[in-house]
Amino acid sequence: PPPSGGCKKSGFDRFAGPEGLRGLCMIRSVCEDRFPAIKNSIPPPLQYPSKGSGPTFAQGLMLMFYSPSLAMKAQGLIKLLSAVMASPAKVEDEAIKEK
């Protein structure tokens, strides 16, 4: 049977056609490693379950790659390294202090 049910003139292609069917689909992207020696993975600070340093890590990446000045790129690198070196307890303590 058609994906939206029905028979004859009641079902797929009657109202929206292929575009309507695409609206019911969940689009996902798939990344494959092109070179076997180089493996892509999610950095530990961004992995689930969260240890709390993910937002700081992401901010450091953004500053490091998209800042116009060298000084801001250095700040991004420092923020990135501090997120990688942070222990989960330290990150939780900083979050409590900010509140």
Task: Give a nutshell description of this structure.
With 99 residues, the protein is mainly α. The protein is built from four helices and no strands.
List low-confidence stretches: none
Class inferred from helices and paired strands: mainly alpha
Number of helices, where a helix is a run of at least 4 consecutive DSSP H or I residues: 4
How many whole angstroms does the radius of gyration measure? 23 Å
Return the average pLDDT rounded to an integer: 76
Query: How many β strands by DSSP?
Result: 0
Element layout with pairings:
Elements: H1 17-23, H2 54-66, H3 70-85, H4 88-98
Describe the structure.
The protein is mainly α. It is built from 4 helices and no strands. It has helices spanning 17-23, 54-66, 70-85, 88-98. The longest helix has 16 residues, at 70-85.
Descriptive key words:
elongated; 4 helices; 99 residues; mainly alpha
